[in-house]
Write a structure and sequence with these properties.
With about 230 residues, this protein is mainly beta. It has two domains: about 160 residues, no CATH class; about 55 residues, no CATH class. The strands form three sheets. Strands 1-9-3-2-12 form a five-stranded mixed sheet, with no helix packed on it. It has a four-stranded antiparallel sheet with strand order 8-7-10-11. Strand 5 and strand 6 form a beta hairpin. The longest helix has 6 residues. It is globular and about 60 Å long.
C-alpha cells in the first residue's frame, strides 16, 4: 500500500489536541496489471498540536507491530506451551482465524516454531474498515485478517502516514488532506459488483484516536477511474 500526504499549517487556529477528520473521497483504479489495482481514500484532518505521523523506522514501543509473550527465563510461549501446560490451554487453537491473528510460524535459532502473539493496535495510525452490504440492506464487516487461513494469511489495510510536522516539539496546529492508497490483486475478485462502504480513523503520536468517518455506499465500478 502507498500514500500521499498534502498538509498545511494555518495561522494558529485553536484545534483540539485530539485529531478530527472528515471524509472527502474514494476512488478505484483498475489498471492492466491486476496486481496494482488500488482503492484510494482521502480524508481531511485538523489537529491542535500537529503531533501526527509515524516514521517507517519506528518499530519499538509504542509502535511495535506485535506483542510476543515470554516466560521469566526468556523463552517464548509457543503452541507447545498450549499443548503441554494446563495454565495455557485456554489459548486459541491453531485454526482459522487464529492461525493468522494470534499464531505466527517463524524460524528462531534455525528452528521452526509457532509463537503466540497479539497485534498492537497502535502500530498503525490510519485504520480502514471494509463493510459489505447484505441482501437485507445491513452491512457486515469484511475482516481481511480473518478471511483466509494459514498459510494464506492476509494483512489488514491499516497502515501508516509519515510525520507531518517539521518539528514535533513546536506543537504547531495542522490541517490538510491525507490521501491513502490500498493496493491489492483481490479487489475485483472479492467484491465484483458488491456494494461497499469504508470507515476510517486516524491516531496521533499520543495514541489519541480521531472520530471515525464513513464513506457513502459504493461499488468498485461506480468509483472507477482511469489507471
Amino acid at each position: 500500500m502507498g500514500l500521499l500526504l498534502i498538509s498545511s499549517c494555518a495561522d494558529p487556529p485553536q484545534y483540539s489536541l485530539i485529531p478530527s477528520i472528515e471524509f472527502d473521497n474514494v476512488i478505484f483504479k483498475d489498471v492492466a496489471d491486476p496486481a496494482v489495482d488500488s482503492l484510494i481514500v482521502t480524508v481531511k484532518f485538523k489537529d491542535g498540536d500537529g503531533h501526527l505521523g509515524i516514521d517507517a523506522t519506528e518499530t519499538g514501543d509504542p509502535f511495535n507491530d506485535k506483542f510476543y509473550y515470554i516466560f521469566p527465563n526468556g523463552t517464548f510461549i509457543t503452541y507447545k506451551t498450549k499443548r503441554t501446560d494446563s495454565h495455557y490451554d485456554t489459548l486459541p487453537a491453531f485454526v482459522k482465524p487464529y492461525n493468522c491473528t494470534n499464531w505466527e510460524v517463524r524460524t528462531v535459532n534455525s528452528k521452526i516454531d509457532t509463537f503466540y502473539y497479539k497485534a498492537n493496535p497502535h502500530a498503525h495510525n490510519i485504520k480502514v474498515q471494509y463493510f459489505v452490504k447484505n441482501f437485507d440492506g445491513s452491512f457486515t464487516e469484511f475482516k481481511w485478517t480473518e478471511q483466509f487461513g494459514y498459510p494464506f494469511c492476509a494483512t489488514s489495510f491499516d497502515g501508516r502516514f509519515p510525520i507531518l510536522s517539521k518539528n514535533l516539539s513546536q506543537k504547531i496546529p495542522l490541517e490538510g488532506t491525507i490521501r491513502y492508497g490500498m493496493v491489492s490483486s483481490g479487489f475485483l475478485a472479492l467484491f465484483s459488483i458488491k456494494t461497499l462502504k469504508l470507515k476510517i480513523t486516524i491516531e496521533d503520536r499520543a495514541l489519541n484516536q480521531s472520530n471515525t468517518v464513513e464513506s457513502p455506499e459504493f461499488t468498485l465500478q461506480s468509483i472507477k477511474r482511469g489507471g
